[in-house]
Amino acid sequence: MSSIEGDALTAGWLEGQNAILISYRFSGVPGAIHADLLSRADVQLATGGHFLVHGFMVHTDRSGPWAVALW
């Protein structure tokens, strides 16, 4: 396993990846950029590859879940 240092918005992505992990990226960029990140990840995945998202999910009005909404 290896990782690539860089900014997911501007760095070049390597092709044919078995897995791509985007950790907290969606909570750190404007919503308008989400579709581009997903598209870039999809293009780089090998057939049968896995796309993993690790982040916080809250209700649209940010009312909860409390532990996440307070973060």
- Largest β sheet strand count, sense and barrel closure: 2 strands, parallel
Q: How far is the first residue's CA from the last residue's CA? A: 30 Å
User: What is the helix fraction of residues, given as a range?
Assistant: 25-40%
* Discrete helix count: 3
Output the structural class.
alpha+beta
Strand order of the largest sheet: 1-2
Q: Gyration radius, to the nearest Å?
A: 14 Å
Give the overall shape.
elongated
Low-pLDDT ranges: none
User: How many distinct beta strands?
Assistant: 2
Query: Which whole number gives the mean pLDDT?
Result: 79
Beta content comes to: 15-25%
Order of helices and strands: EHHEH
What would you say this structure looks like, in words?
The N and C termini lie far apart (30 Å). The model has no long low-confidence stretch (mean pLDDT 79). The chain has a two-stranded parallel sheet with strand order 1-2. The chain is elongated. With 71 residues, the protein is an alpha+beta fold. The protein has three helices and two strands; from the N terminus they run βααβα.
Brief summary of the model shown:
With 71 residues, the chain is α+β, with helices and mostly antiparallel strands. It has three helices and two strands. A two-stranded parallel ribbon has the order 1-2.
Question: Can you lay out the helices and strands and say which pair or pack?
Answer:
Layout: E1 17-23, H1 25-28, H2 34-44, E2 45-54, H3 66-69
Parallel strand pairs: 1-2
